[in-house]
Request: fold
Amino acid sequence: MKRKFDLYAMTWRLPIIFWQFLFFVGPLLFMVAISFFVVKNYRMMEAFEFVNWQKMFSKGYFWDSYWYTIFIAGVSTTVAMILAFPASFTLAFRASDNLRRWAIFLLIIPFFTSYLVRTFSWYVILAESGVLNAMLAYLGLGPFKMLNTHFGTVVGYLTLTLPLVVILQTVTMASVDKTLIEAARNLGCKPLATIWRVVLPLSKTGFIVAALFCFILSFGDFVAPFYLGGSQEPTLPILILDTTKSGQQWPRAAVVAIVMMATLFTIAFAAIALAYRKGGAK
Amino acid sequence: MKSKHLKSRLVTPTRRDVLRIGGGVALSAPFVGRAWAATTEINMLAWYGHGEPDMVGAFEEANNVKFVPKYYAGGDNMLALIAQSPPGTYDIILSDGEFVQQLNAAGYIEELNADDYPFDDMLHEDFTKFPGHWDGDTLYSMILRGGHLGVSYNTTAISAEEATSYDAFWKPEVKGKVGHFDWHLPSLGMMSLKNGNGANLWNIDAAQWQAVQDTTMSLRSQVGGFFDYGGTFNGLKNGEMLAMCGIGDWITGVLERDGAPVASAIPKEGGIQFTESYCIGKGSGKADLVNKFIQYMLSPEGQVKSAQMAAYPGFCVTKAGRAMLQEVDAAEAKRSHQIDGMANEPIALINEGRIHYRNIPQQQSLEDWNDFWSEYKNA
Reply:
């Protein structure tokens, strides 16, 4: 049966379609276009040349940054998922509804303040003469170099992502049918096995979405690797800045940005496919 | 009854009230408009700090103008901002000396009248005919200040004697604690000086360029990070970085004023001078006012303000400016060695041939240098 064109429904859909085209598809197409432009005398000139793509893809430092960014964002995602789990599990299964609501509210509060400010506050804590090393000194340990290291970068990423991961994990696990857990326990399943064979499979979608968000935010973040990681090694967002800063190579920066987006699209599609793949607990 | 009447009067204005208030507003409007129009806005493109009250406040007050600064970081960034703006966007442009030629070649700046400025009072002859500021006999940019770049260090980790050579950066005790100001030009210039290229540090052939890259790479294991202005400042202040490559007194001077144990020295291999100059933007409708400001900044009072600038200090270029600095702020004059006969006195360093004006690479492109810088950061 042929569907009738519904003008009323279409009228309500149009703003979001228009919005997406104006602020997402349009700029994206423009970014693709400028990746073929050339820069002469610090001015971008319209052209259709592949020189920027050839240049970036032929440079070892581009690929070094690419793989490092994937690696460090992956580390951040793994650490965030592991660190968040005990807290989320407790909030989902052990806490009262009231306590869970308060906990989620408190987890949202960090987002009220500037991420840059939160990142800078780590200077005071992680510096060699900082709070953490002072505490470790009482135990006869340290001082440890934490700023301008990979560790510093991951701490910065977690500042951005950990509260979000805890919230997503908590909400996902809280919606798991408790009777299934009780059934597993009644049938002799040990606590850890229950988590592994019942809770995690039933929370799979939410967990994958949490991990995906964590990866996306870490992959595109400039602040943590720049200010807490000391730019070494540079991630792709730092490479974009370097590229635009020297010689105003916006077209080459566009190449880096497109590669980043393509990578994230691929990972996101793979993750979503995995999340909604049929199959549950065995 | 009386209070009800009063309430009614407060809430509901009479026709007479409306006429009185409306008339007052109408009559005062031209004066309000005139008061706004009287404050002239001057759009400034400059390094951070040049448009702040400590630099322009007194001039603004005396001339009823308001500076609207747009800050940049690096000459490339400056050129791009101008290239992407319509003519006349910026009334005054503060440029690094080495980029004035490119501003002029692109037609972004106006001619200046050399007679307007105190060329007969310059502390060094080079400042009167500074490279790139002139095109034949036509002046395009007026020198304002300068600063020297060399070995910047924490005095508890590196001695003054060790800081007399760039070798200090390779000292085992500062492994992982050498920072870079994240701009290839000064750091690679210093590596070129370390390799003994002296006055030809920017004019190096392929073999010398390769040697500079090798020297730089050999420093990589010592490096603890690459920083912008804020990061450089913090790194030195909290002791995370014990030596910094690519900077000089323009950063350590600010920390030194606060009592931090840091200093900058010009090593025996030579140092680099950054030079800042004012230009009038092409198409500016306020050229006369801007010219007056440049004259003010070249006056003794302006030179003192520049030397004391809160964001980062620079040395005076006029004799009268230096004399006034010694008179009104002897401590700063002493701290920055701006006293004749002092060790590391800036003009004496230039005369001894130990200072080389910052430039852009002559035989390689800026892109070559920048590409290597990215490789270096990733190494």
The interface with chain B takes residues 41-43, 59-61, 64-65, 68, 123, 127-130, 145, 147-148, 226-227, 229-234, 239, 242, 245-248 of chain A (CB under 8 Å).
